[in-house]
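Try this one yourself first.
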């Protein structure tokens, strides 16, 4: 508890008190609460939280079934045992358990109130009173002729489904808003960072949880009983397992990328931070081009890994002082092919491999390694080439100071059509106008100041003698000659 700021402790305390007030009517003498249903749902939720502790939301249908079957005060109690018994990985354990219990209790209470306000309980009661609600639904779906008394109640199912989805969204919205408050008070995040952009992704799963919870509630009161209702959790558990595996695979991908980038940074200290910034600039260009989702992420990764082939270049060449010999230049120019070979077995990279191999190709065909021209150069490679050159010009190097962003943009425009794709240059220009840019120092160790970059600059804008890197103080920036 001592590790939490005072504001966070006060926030959690208020949530616990609010949760207690919401559940208090259930424990008053004479309260009509179906305790057997409440206890069984609470046990099921607690068991589910222990089984899949890393994604307890998989058993949200249990909470929603409680919101549909029980009064709001009793529904608020369903989540408490599971929240208190769930595993806690970081201290303070007691405060975290209390917070989880309060957050879920308030969310389920709000969902139950929303379902009641929309008339959901009356609809379900009418269905149960008419007989077998599950059979009514099956008759409606199959088109079979049903008794008149059941047909009169059957239209309640679509309404009950709409009410269930609305209640599920209320549950997700309440839980997400409360969680954002903890991020603001405990982790000092800004309200925009805590809530901005989180709601759509957080609410989407509840579009599935709502119908699942309704199915549990209908089956619970059907002749098949609670045992049949629990079968609804089986597909939810399978989905939860798949989601956890996806997250683990994604984390492994990110760890692989970080390891490769760190290895390059250790070997070629001159490029420190360059890879991450090229990835960021590549993503800015991609958004302007209308890319999103997996392609956007693949292009960001392509920018980060574009220089991974330098792991195959002798360190003495990467840190050599003075001009390169023709043979040394040819070795340096092999780094895109080395990079392609290194990542060949990493299946998740997809189109990113093309950028790693071809980011030094030029629109006029004078680049390397294969001298591709125009549309022969993959789109990802054309994006990364612009991002790479832009960061090379706007970053402070050991041999030259950073150029202002407007100067770098003008140089890119000057070389558009011959070295760079004009569409990519235009996209970066628009993104910079909208979002701006910040570049950090890439070479920061004092002992490195005698080193000059060994990678050759492209012929179009090279001012130094052939085979020599740009000299310190060179007045013109060198697009495409970035590390």
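Now uncover the answer:
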């Amino acid at each position: 508890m001592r590790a939490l700021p005072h504001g966070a402790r006060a926030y959690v305390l208020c949530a616990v008190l609010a949760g207690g007030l919401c559940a208090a009517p259930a424990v008053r003498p004479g309260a009509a609460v179906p305790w057997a249903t409440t206890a069984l749902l609470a046990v099921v939720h607690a068991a589910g939280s222990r089984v899949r502790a890393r994604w307890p939301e998989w058993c949200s249908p249990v909470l929603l079934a409680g919101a549909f079957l029980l009064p709001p005060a009793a529904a608020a109690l369903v989540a408490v045992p599971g929240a208190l018994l769930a595993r806690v990985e970081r201290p303070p354990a007691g405060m975290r358990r209390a917070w989880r219990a309060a957050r879920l209790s308030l969310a389920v209470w709000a969902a139950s109130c929303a379902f009641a306000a929309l008339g959901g309980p009356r609809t379900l009661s009418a269905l149960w009173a008419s007989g077998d609600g599950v059979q009514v639904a099956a008759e409606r779906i199959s088109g079979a002729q049903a008794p008149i008394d059941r047909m009169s109640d059957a239209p309640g199912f679509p309404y009950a489904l709409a009410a269930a989805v609305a209640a599920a969204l209320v549950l997700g919205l309440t839980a997400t808003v409360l969680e954002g408050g903890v991020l603001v008070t405990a982790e000092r995040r800004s309200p925009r960072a805590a809530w901005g952009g989180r709601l759509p992704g957080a609410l989407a799963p509840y579009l599935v949880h709502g119908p699942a919870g309704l199915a549990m509630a209908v089956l619970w009161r059907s002749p098949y009983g609670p045992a049949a209702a629990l079968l609804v959790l089986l597909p939810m558990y399978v989905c939860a397992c798949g989601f956890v595996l996806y997250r683990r695979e994604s984390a492994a991908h990110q760890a692989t990328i970080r390891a490769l980038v760190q290895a390059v940074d250790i070997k070629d200290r001159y490029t420190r931070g360059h890879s991450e910034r090229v990835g960021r600039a590549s993503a800015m260009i991609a958004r302007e081009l209308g890319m999103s989702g997996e392609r956007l992420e693949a292009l960001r990764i392509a920018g980060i890994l574009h220089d991974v082939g330098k792991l195959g270049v002798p360190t003495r060449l990467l840190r050599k002082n003075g001009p390169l010999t023709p043979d040394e230049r040819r070795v340096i120019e092999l780094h895109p092919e080395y990079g392609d070979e290194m990542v060949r077995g990493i299946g998740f990279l997809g189109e990113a491999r093309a950028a790693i191999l071809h980011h030094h190709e030029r629109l006029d065909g004078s680049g390397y390694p294969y001298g591709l021209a125009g549309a022969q150069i993959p789109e990802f490679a054309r994006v990364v080439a612009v991002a790479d050159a832009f960061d090379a010009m706007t970053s402070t190097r050991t041999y030259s100071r950073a150029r202002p962003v407007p100067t770098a943009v003008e140089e890119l425009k000057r070389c558009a059509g011959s070295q760079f794709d004009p569409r990519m240059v235009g996209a970066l220009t628009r993104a910079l106008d909208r979002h701006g840019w910040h570049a950090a120092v890439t070479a920061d160790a004092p002992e490195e100041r005698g080193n000059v970059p060994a990678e050759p600059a492209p012929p179009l804008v090279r001012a130094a003698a052939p085979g020599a890197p740009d000299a310190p103080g060179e007045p013109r920036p060198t697009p495409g000659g970035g590390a």
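Discussion: The two ends are 47 Å apart (CA to CA). The chain has two domains: 6-231, 256-461.
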